[in-house]
């Protein structure tokens, strides 16, 4: 969120070119903004805690309300209200029949002009074609994605010697106000160790 907001990637590229002007690098204060969180499980709650530290107003949409979120001051609202009110929207829900294509042209049309979208959930929650349209018509000022709708066979693979055959992804990554990471949001030493421990524990339970 802050990398895109403060245009860190663009700044680094300009720095390498020895262009030290800051005219094109203006961001916005997160403090005082309204943040909408879709899904308030463990990850959504971690994000809510961080945003609380920034001094934001936090709205949430989740069929199951989290008591800890309410203690933090999070206000549960309908999805439509969250989309209308939020300056920053972050998705943290699972992908299932209810959430597949949760955000399409209809939902993007309800968002504030110039809002930011973050998704570290699953690619299928957002309809990519409609997302691109929302970027082009400037409904979305910035987008941060750790997932992509058609990432299977693309992410986690080395395609340096291949011709990219996904025009949708090519278009998406061409925007300078879009930051895409290859499903690496989880990728820390601690997380990998945790996954290994849980896997071994599950195998032990199976044997027993």
Notes on the protein architecture:
By secondary structure, this protein is of the alpha/beta class. 37% of the residues lie in helices and 14% in strands.
Q: What do the pLDDT scores average to?
A: 95
Largest sheet: 7 strands, parallel
Strand content: 5-15%
Structural class: alpha/beta
Identify the overall geometry.
Answer: globular
Provide the helix percentage: 25-40%
Which regions are unreliable across 5 or more consecutive residues at pLDDT < 50?
none
Rounded to an integer in angstroms, the radius of gyration calculated over CA atoms is 19 Å
CA-to-CA gap between the ends? 45 Å
Number of helices: 9
Using DSSP, what is the number of strands?
A: 7
Going across the major beta sheet, what is the strand order? 3-2-1-4-5-6-7
What letter string, H or E per element, gives the SSE order? Answer: HHEHEHEHEHEHEHEH
Structure summarized in a few sentences:
This protein is α/β, with parallel strands linked by helices and 208 residues long. The protein is built from 9 helices and 7 strands.
Looking at this protein, list some descriptive labels.
alpha/beta
Protein topology:
Elements: H1 2-5, H2 8-16, E1 34-38, H3 42-53, E2 57-61, H4 67-71, E3 75-76, H5 79-85, E4 88-91, H6 105-108, E5 115-119, H7 128-136, E6 140-145, H8 167-173, E7 178-180, H9 189-207
Parallel strand pairs: 1-2, 1-4, 2-3, 4-5, 5-6, 6-7
